[in-house]
Amino acid sequence: MRKCCIGDICESVSDTYRGNANQVVLINTSDVLDGRVLNHTYVKNEGLKGQFKKTFAKNDILYSEIRPANKRFAFVDFCNTGDYIASTKLMVIRSKTHMVRPRFLFAILKSQGLIDELQTLAETRSGTFPQITFSGELASKEIFLPELEYQDKIVSVLDSIEGRISTNALINDNLAV
């Protein structure tokens, strides 16, 4: 295990969408929540608002710059992202896979301790709303990073637990009907 900064093991990607698909899916901060992309609805690719510019790929992390405590972040676990466009208010974070597994990085980024720290930092910034940036607040956060084989084991356990939580939520939703 070694100590490093988050910015050492991932990067903030800002690739502009240059596609010309007839229909696209627009992902705003309200379309991601607590680990999931909520919106998969296609809209016409015309007259789009200026904030929709960023592309992303499978295993990327979408992380809101605004109010970290609202948990507006998601792990991209689907392949067909070519027609998806993210808002500029979402950071697209990509792991350096030779150092960190994408799901392990996501577990770090959604940990309550880090979220609390980022929220505190966001609230100290001047401006209209609590905001963070990758280079300003996130990249400099220090973490302890285990070897890849241990990351794989940890991710396996976390995925199992999250799978059970999802299954229980579906059961509860069906019982409520």
Would you write up a description of this structure?
The protein has 177 residues and is α+β, with helices and mostly antiparallel strands. It has one domain (2-145): DNA methylase specificity domains (Adenine-n6-DNA-methyltransferase TaqI, Chain A, domain 2), CATH 3.90.220. Helix content is 33%, strand content 25%. It is built from five helices and twelve strands. The strands form four sheets. Strands 2-11-8-9 form a four-stranded antiparallel β-sheet. It is globular. The protein starts with a strand and ends with a helix.
Q: How many separate domains make up the residues? A: 1
What order do the helices and strands follow? EHEEEEEEEEEEHHHEH
Query: Runs with pLDDT <50, length 5+?
Result: none
Superfamily (CATH H level) name: DNA methylase specificity domains
CATH architecture heading: Alpha-Beta Complex
Count of β-strands: 12
Distance between termini?
Answer: 47 Å
Radius of gyration using CA atoms only: 17 Å
Residue fraction in strands: 15-25%
Q: Quote the CATH topology.
A: Adenine-n6-DNA-methyltransferase TaqI, Chain A, domain 2
Secondary structure class reads alpha+beta
Largest sheet: 4 strands, antiparallel
Q: Judging from the principal axes of the Cα atoms, what is the shape?
A: globular
Side-by-side strand order of the widest sheet? 2-11-8-9
Q: For the residues shown, what is the average pLDDT? A: 93
Secondary structure layout plus pairing:
Layout: E1 2-5, H1 6-9, E2 10-13, E3 23-27, E4 32-33, E5 36-37, E6 42-44, E7 52-54, E8 61-64, E9 73-75, E10 84-87, E11 90-95, H2 102-109, H3 112-124, H4 134-138, E12 142-145, H5 148-176
